[in-house]
Amino acid sequence: MTQQETRPEATTSAPPPQHPIPRGRGLVTTVGPGLVLAMTFLGTGDLVSSSVSGAQYGYALVWTLILSLFARIFIISALAKYTLMNRYGDTQILEGFKRIAPWLPGAMAVVVLVAGFVTQATFLKAAAIGLYNLTGGSWGGDWGVFICSVLIVGGTLYVITRRAPLTILEYVARFASLLMIGAYVYALIRIGHFDIGGFLQGLAFQIPEDDNTSGGAFAPIVIAAATIGTIAGNMPNLLYSGFMKDKGWTGPRYRRIQQLDLIAGMAPLLIINLLFWIVAAEHARDVGGLTISNEQDLAGILGAIIGPIGPYILWLVLFSAAATSFPPESRGFAQLAMNGIHLSFKKASHWLGRDEEDPWFKRVQIGLFTVLPLVASLPFAPNLVTLSVAGTALSTLLALPAIVIALLLLTSRRKHMLDYAVNKPWATIILGVLGVIAVGVGIQIAINLPTMVANAFGG
User: What secondary structure does DSSP assign to 240-304, as a single string?
Assistant: First the structure.
């Protein structure tokens, strides 16, 4: 379908009958893309950002969590709306981006190549650290984590060459989410208290002053920006359209089941993030202050709360979540990058609609997004916490403002959307506000970028 063509039903004024929602076991097996997407964020970003924020600043920044979860749901819903209910039959979001500006898919492809690699490097290192510590954490010297990374890459190569990798990962994602919820609920029970008043005060949209007394590596505004970027999601949001396509969800009849799927994925995400934050904040209050500067500090929290088994639970949580994230994002990032390239160059346009058949697809997926991230596990690489915070901030700077503004322009215009699917005024206003916030977050990250780079690579 060309850029000028529209599908036959594009002028209808009423939505078509919705695809029936399965019941019982069928409902459990049907929903999945939203949960897989949620777990791609949970690989390390939510665990690190929420724990660091709670430990260093208590509940002072908890408003960033609430705002970001709301923003994430709204942004992903707008993205799904376009891919299901646009006038042209587009099934990939970058096709819509090209309708805004011909150069935009190419620019986003560059962002995907850069930010996607950083994201994958963080996930691989997190999974490797989890596996290394689960197997004793005292073998291999400085190269133990790297050896675990090689093993995980080998497993990933097996998974991504199977015929139904998404199905496998849906079950792993369910296991990982239940494991995280159970572990942190138990930790909160062991703590035995929850400062509800302090939590409510933390919803007041305030940023504490940076007086350097917390001992943290990042200023409060950087932590806030990283949290918003991590939880609201940035460039990985774009993977959802590909996950929906894998499920066969194309066209407006799948809007209702897609919305249910998104809720099923985001609900455990809200619970897990709140638990990360509350456990870190309450434990920090008990010990009179707490600094999280590396992954061992994260394990130390659970160890202090629930005993010797605590660190092993943390390593299992970290390994399960990150290992769940790494394979689908290698494929998703490669598909996004290739789709952007195919939309940008005439010589490659014959691959449109079959991005994964391009010989370069597997080269990018395996080379850039699966094997090359091994460099993050080398002994001289930044530790997991600084890599996660700095990497997330960089990805947010490069992608979030452009994504929100593009979605605003696409879903608010009748020329792009089916008549009944054009945003209501309130939805347009919300996307506009989110766009302003995204630009503001980007500016703050850009201002603090030199410091973040120094912290990541200067020790």
Answer: HHHHHHHHT--SGGGHHHHHHHHHHHHHHHHHHHHHHHHHHHHHHHHHT-----SHHHHHHHHHH
